[in-house]
Design a protein that fits this description.
Order of helices and strands: HEEHEEEH
CATH topology: Beta-Lactamase
Shape: globular
Number of domains: 1
CATH class: Alpha Beta
Strand order of the largest sheet: 2-1-5-4-3
Distance between the termini: 21 Å
Largest sheet: 5 strands, antiparallel
CATH architecture: 2-Layer Sandwich
CATH superfamily: Dynein light chain 2a, cytoplasmic
């Protein structure tokens, strides 16, 4: 199954999901899929990479262990982000009021599938 298909499957199972992307921590968007034409998740690829790095750095400084996920909740959208492998992150964007718990569950269930799609890309 292609990475885009995995993202589509994740989005179809989460109420309020608007988009999903896999980004490299340097900001490159590897793959993105959106359900709402108004949300362009790929435009914030570099920012999502920075968010993943800052979250991991803060956890290290606190000796908190690895970051499971990070959440940014804004007026219109919720962004859920989780590390995949070493250099990548999976991001799910939801409308405010979307099912964040289901998004977390789908993220956890599908991290290995996303990682398997990324392994051939890692040198």
């Amino acid at each position: 199954m292609a990475l885009r298909d995995v993202l589509k499957e994740i989005l179809s199972s989460v109420e309020g999901a608007l988009g999903a992307a896999v980004v490299r921590l340097d900001g490159e968007v590897v793959e993105a899929h959106t359900l709402d034409g108004g949300l362009r998740i790929e435009r914030v690829g570099p920012d999502l990479g920075i968010l993943a790095k800052v979250s991991a750095y803060a956890a290290r400084k606190l000796n908190a262990g690895p970051v499971d996920y990070s959440v940014v909740s804004a007026e219109k959208y919720i962004l859920l982000l989780s590390a995949v492998e070493v250099d990548y992150a999976l991001v799910i964007a939801l409308r405010q009021g979307g099912n964040l718990g289901k998004a977390r569950l789908q993220m956890k269930k599908n991290l290995e599938r996303v990682a398997a799609q990324l392994r051939p890309l890692v040198p």
